[in-house]
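User: quick one, sequence for these C-alpha cells?
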C-alpha cells in the first residue's frame, strides 16, 4: 500500500473509522520510527458518545499500531471492530490497562 502523504501534519485531525463503519474519533498524534523513516502508530482521540470512548473508560485516546490500519486517505480505516481492537493492541497497552 503506497502512502502519498507529504507532510506529517497531513495525518492530524483525519477521521478514524473501523472497516465495519464504526466511528472512532480523530487522529491526534503520530508516532514515527526515525531510524526507518516510517509511521509506527497513530493516536486516536475517542469521540464523545462512541463505542471507543465507552471501551476506553477514563482514557481519552488510544495508540493504534500502523499495522492495524487498513487504509489512510481522506479518512483512516482500522482493520478491526472496536470491540476486537482491545484484543490486538500491543502488550504494553495491555500491561498499562492491568496496572489501573
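Assistant:
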Amino acid at each position: 500500500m503506497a502512502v502519498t502523504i507529504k507532510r506529517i501534519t497531513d495525518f492530524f485531525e483525519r477521521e478514524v473509522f473501523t472497516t465495519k463503519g464504526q466511528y472512532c474519533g480523530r487522529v491526534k498524534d503520530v508516532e514515527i520510527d526515525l531510524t526507518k523513516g516510517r509511521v509506527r502508530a497513530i493516536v486516536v482521540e475517542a469521540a464523545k458518545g462512541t463505542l471507543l470512548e465507552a471501551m476506553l473508560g477514563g482514557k481519552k485516546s488510544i495508540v493504534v499500531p500502523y499495522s492495524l490500519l487498513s487504509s489512510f486517505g481522506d479518512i483512516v480505516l482500522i482493520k478491526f471492530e472496536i470491540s476486537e481492537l482491545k484484543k490486538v493492541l500491543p502488550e504494553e497497552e495491555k500491561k498499562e490497562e492491568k496496572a489501573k
